[in-house]
Amino acid sequence: MQPDFWLRRWQNNQIGFHAATANPYLQQYWPQLNVAAGAQVLVPLCGKSLDLMWLAGQGLRVLGVELVEQAVQDFFSEQHLQPQVREHGAFRIYQAGNVELWCGDIFALTAEDVRDCTALYDRAALIAFLPAMREAYAQHLTRIVPSGCQGLLVSLDYEQSQMDGPPFSVPDGDVQSLLGEWQPQLLHIENGLQAEENWKFLQRGLSRLDERVYRLRRR
What digits encode the pLDDT tens for the residues 142-154? Predict the structure, then answer.
């Protein structure tokens, strides 16, 4: 989606995508990656997600990237953290403890910026982009992230004709094609319409919603 779309969503408090707790799939499957304490994890399109604090609580250094500065500021305010702020190229970086949130366009991120990222967590990025931008995002991510980086991807699959995104449907075939260099391994699939917090998808007319969790490892 265009930047103005997300800016309007945050300005109008249309952030139903923001969860009130850390993602249960993250909590269940992240330990399987055996990411070393002190490692840096990249979290694209992170918003003000509580997943950031959960990852930091595992002894990891978190590098989140978020376009909307209000989301970044809200995160630190709601976590009662006083960040230091600095400029770096196209980004304004807010940092407190082990959490750095880079405010700016994910496509401005360079290989040098993420050279220390040995882990990745994508719950909100791949499903946020229209197909053309999704391919550009996957290519950009693959280009800049170091070989050997491992991660976790949470994706959604539904009949796209039944609902306008975001979040958009990203079927398994698309995940395998877009992220082939990451060797996606399906860890879990679940009927998302059975989850109480997903009632809004039923209201929007979905007859099926598969939530898929993948393990990733960059070649």
Answer: 999 999 999 999 9
